[in-house]
Amino acid sequence: MKKTILSVMAIVFAMLGFAQEDYMNMKQFDVKSGKIEYKIEGKTKGTKTLWFDDYGRYQYEHTVTSTKMFGMTTKTESLKIRDKEWMYDINLVDKTGTKMHVDKANEMLNVTTDVTTDEQLKKFGEDVQKNMDIKDGGTETLLGRSCKVTTSGSLNSKTWEYKRIFLKTTVDLGSMLGASNEEAISFEENISIPASKFTVPSGIPIQEIDFNNMYGGEGETGEE
User: Is this prediction's pTM over 0.85?
Assistant: First the structure.
């Protein structure tokens, strides 16, 4: 659940201020390439490493976590890979994965938010800021970089953003799920990354998510 909330926050905050008819094909970050290592703390503990190139149009995110709740420990290991055509979500424990075409992700964002013009985007942004109680928290320095701080009262969250890259995110989900903290501990900026880094591992069945059939159809299954 925490992971879902963090993903939603990242999408919402990134979309604000940008025309989004082709959002997924735009520059995702204002840094050309990099490698960021994060530590994850709270009831869920672990690490995340993000490699990216071409301003985020290529990404490789490896996450390993362990969550202890109700006396049980759940371990996960996952990959999220994207290039200019596809977005992959791979479970390295179960050896399964899904993929969605970037154009389909654009369609989903546009349909979900019902935003097709800059005027509608502005109205959408204003509504989101009001409903989520999003406020400007000024600037703070992380890893020697000046970050824009944003808070959300409705989510009990706070983000530190550097050139559209989230270097730190905190969320407090109350007594049952507790607080979660994801913070960058190292950042190599504008480095050379081989194209092979963004390759999907072989031998893992990949199920294509078809936006048109999400509510009752079957996607294609293949092996990358």
Answer: no
Half-sphere exposure of 220 (CA within 13 A, CB side): 6
Structure tokens at 41: 């703390």
The first and second tokens of residue 133, run together, are: 């109680």
Kindly report, residue by residue over 97-155, the tens digit of the pLDDT.
999 998 887 776 666 556 556 676 667 767 777 777 888 899 999 999 999 999 988 77
Range of the domain at 215: 2-223
| Phi-psi category of residue 116: left, alpha or beta, with phi > 0 → left and psi -120 to 50 → alpha | alpha
Alpha-carbon distances, residue 76 vs 39, 45, 98, 106 (angstroms) = 15, 10, 16, 28
Residue 157 has pLDDT above 70, yes or no: yes
Single out the residue of 73, 80, 77 nearest to residue 65, CA to CA: 77
**Total structural domains within the chain:** 1
Nearest of 89, 93, 88 to residue 66 by alpha carbon: 93
CATH classification at residue 161: 2.50.20.10
**Type of residue numbered 186:** S
Q: DSSP letters along 58-95, please? A: EEEEEEEEEEEETTEEEEEEEEEEE-SSEEEEEETTTT
For the stretch 37-63, pLDDT in tens is 999 999 899 999 999 999 999 999 999
pLDDT band at 198 (very low <50, low <70, confident <90, very high): very high
